[in-house]
Amino acid sequence: MLEVWTWSTPNGHKVHIALEELGIPYKVIPIDIGAGDQFKPEFLKINPNHRIPAIVDPSSNPPRS
């Protein structure tokens, strides 16, 4: 199952819409950009540019984002 690291912004909603339309299962991991969560080390490992949304496929080896 894909992990979608996102927040409720227009760009974040685009990913949800696309995944729903494609029927791809996903899990949302909220990144509160107002609180600065996009600068936390666990998110920077996924996207060093600190931009949301980010999609991770944990089933690949190594996990891909």
Residue windows where pLDDT falls under 50 for at least 5 positions = none
Largest sheet: 3 strands, mixed
What is the tally of helical segments? Answer: 2
CATH topology: Glutaredoxin
Oligomeric assembly: single chain
| Count of beta strands | 3
Structural class: alpha+beta
Domains counted in the coordinates: how many? Answer: 1
Strand order of the largest sheet: 2-1-3
The sequence of SSEs as H and E is: EHEHE
Beta-strand residue percentage:
15-25%
Average pLDDT across residues? 92
Shape: flat
Top-tier CATH class: Alpha Beta
Give helix % range. Answer: 25-40%
Distance between termini?
13 Å
Question: What's the SSE blueprint?
Answer:
Elements: E1 2-6, H1 10-22, E2 26-30, H2 41-44, E3 54-56
Parallel strand pairs: 1-2
Antiparallel strand pairs: 1-3
